[in-house]
Amino acid sequence: MDLALFDFDGTITTHEAMPAFVRATTSRPRLVAGYLLLWPMILGYKLGMVSGSRVRAAIVRVAYTGRPAAWLQARGADFARDDLERHLRPEAMRRIEWHRARGDAVLVVSGGLAEYLQPWADAHGLEVACSRLGRRGDRLTGRYEGAQCVGADKARRVAARFDLTDFARIHAYGDTAEDEHLLAMATDRFYRTMPEPAA
Q: Tens digit of pLDDT for each residue in 22-42?
């Protein structure tokens, strides 16, 4: 049995899901205020001067501080069904099914939010390791629960979940620098490419 590790945004999907989810779950006044507050940081990100992790942490703080956790979880389920399904890469889904038909263990490893990734993964019968929002009682804190599932944390979560010596080969699929540690732990690395399953 092999292990197959898939990034989500841009690898399984055609676009990054989190910006669309934030727009769908944040009121227009809060979106406008957030843009006015965060535009220097967003510009720094686009210029390569600010990390994606820092920008995402700031966006989460503005968008979700104090919001009801159950409400966002329900919106995440709607988003998984109505938005994510329309933006899946057919070649990626074929590759996932190829791995599952071989009996391989498959894990989606993403910096995206559990609010929409968990229901999507459940609907497809897949395991997922992803970022989670912190809660205090029934409200969101506006911070992540632990580290974002990006960069070295992707590899750490995989190693915590599996004994890697159990697998003959490890296949990893990614498309950005945040996937470098995930790709580095694999015997078969696929960066911005998705081979068609063998007949």
A: 999 999 999 999 999 999 999
Cβ proximity of 59 and 42 under 8 Å: no
Find where tokens 């727009």 sit. Answer: 23
Rounded to an integer, the average pLDDT of 52-66 is 96
At 15, the amino acid letter reads H
73-98 pLDDT tens trace: 999 999 999 999 999 999 999 999 99
Strands 139-144, 133-136: pairing kind? antiparallel
Q: Which residues, in sequence order, are CB contacts of 110 under 8 Å at separation 6+?
A: 7, 8, 9, 117, 128, 129, 130, 131, 149
Structure tokens belonging to residue 87: 């933006």
d(CA 52, CA 59) in angstroms, rounded, equals: 10
What local confidence, expressed as pLDDT, does residue 177 receive? 92
Return the pLDDT at 18.
96
Q: Please give the Cα distance from 62 to 38 (Å, whole number).
A: 9
Round to whole Å and give the CA distance between 167 and 169.
5
According to DSSP, residue 113 is labeled E
Dihedrals φ, ψ of 14, to 5°? -90, -10
Tokens matching residue 1:
């049995």
